[in-house]
């Protein structure tokens, strides 16, 4: 017999398929080429069972969702004190590509905006940018539960057009937040954003955080448990950029979105959620993705602030 949760997700997917608001991201030219109709929802429980509906096997680039997981790797590698000298934890209330730096230290306000993510990527373990890339790749693979690959066309497209991110990197170099060659470090950031995932992968990544850092199927510990709540805290306040306040108010879950159309949401101790639909609102969040999470929060009581 079909589980009630599967039946519920199928009905929700059907209902929200008629939502056609939003636009594909086009500032990275290659992202404008994806099929806008794709739509998948996947929910993973703490024993690793996945409930999936729609295009949950379709690949897309992870984009900014990677920021939360690379931040986790940086905390694990360098410890909280050191990481705090490079990037803060205050919501910026600004767009994801804003140049929100601390006026004196130059540290970006948080690791979920581009400036903070570029700083974070530059400090993961590794003596060279190549070694650091291997660390990022391994960290992402542990969260996902299998090896990762990169969409080279998206990566090239982003590198060719990413002048704003380049400017941010030089600002970070100016403040000594990024050390070494800022362009080589930035290429790692472009590459991490171009990692290919599907909706199911996102749900397992979220479930790993929900499960206090241990992947529910592989049982691999991805980061020390004391850092899991730090990562979730920053996702809750900063994960949805300048929509973060409304998101916490209406949905009430730590989450992270990316301009590829993915969203991960975490209900600690219970579920990891992955949603994929590439049409975005003006803040760069998936329109259907937000709607799915609002509905899940309301219909099955996933708000972390709710009593029941
Ligand atoms: N790679 C994208 C960028 O740096 C990520 C942005 C996003 O997903 N919000 O612009």
Automatic annotation (TrEMBL):
Positions bound to substrate: 64, 114, 158, 165, 189, 241, 259
Origin: domain of life: Bacteria
GO molecular function, one term: glutaminase activity
EC number: 3.5.1.2
Record's catalysed reaction(s): L-glutamine + H2O = L-glutamate + NH4(+)
Keywords: Acetylation, Hydrolase
Main EC class the enzyme belongs to: hydrolase
Family indicated by similarity: Belongs to the glutaminase family.
Self-association and partners: Homotetramer.
Protein name in UniProt: Glutaminase
Organism: Uliginosibacterium silvisoli
């Amino acid at each position: 017999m079909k589980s009630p949760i599967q039946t519920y997700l199928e009905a929700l997917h059907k209902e929200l398929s008629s939502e056609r608001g939003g636009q594909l991201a086009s500032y990275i030219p290659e992202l404008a080429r994806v099929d806008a109709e794709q739509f998948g929802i996947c929910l993973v429980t703490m024993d690793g069972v996945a409930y999936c509906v729609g295009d949950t096997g379709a690949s897309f680039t992870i984009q900014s969702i990677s920021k939360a997981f690379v931040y986790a790797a940086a905390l694990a590698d360098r410890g909280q004190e050191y990481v705090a000298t490079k990037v803060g934890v205050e919501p910026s209330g600004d767009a994801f590509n804003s140049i929100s730096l601390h006026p004196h230290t130059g540290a970006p306000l948080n690791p979920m905006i581009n400036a903070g993510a570029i700083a974070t990527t530059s400090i993961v373990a590794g003596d060279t940018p190549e070694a650091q890339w291997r660390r990022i790749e391994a960290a992402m693979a542990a969260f996902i539960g299998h090896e990762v690959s990169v969409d080279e066309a998206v990566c090239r497209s982003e590198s060719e057009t990413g002048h704003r991110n380049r400017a941010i990197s030089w600002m970070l170099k100016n403040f000594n937040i990024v050390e070494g060659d800022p362009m080589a470090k930035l290429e790692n950031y472009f590459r991490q954003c171009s990692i290919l995932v599907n909706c199911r992968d996102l749900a397992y990544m979220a479930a790993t955080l929900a499960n206090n850092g241990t992947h529910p199927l592989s049982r691999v510990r991805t980061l020390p448990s004391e850092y899991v709540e730090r990562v979730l805290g920053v996702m809750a306040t900063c994960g949805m950029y300048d929509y973060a306040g409304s998101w916490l108010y209406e949905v009430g879950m730590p989450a992270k979105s990316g301009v590829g159309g993915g969203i991960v949401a975490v209900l600690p101790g219970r579920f990891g959620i992955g949603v994929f639909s590439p049409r975005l609102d003006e803040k760069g969040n998936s329109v259907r993705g937000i709607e799915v999470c609002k509905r899940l929060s309301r219909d099955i009581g996933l708000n972390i602030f709710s009593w029941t």
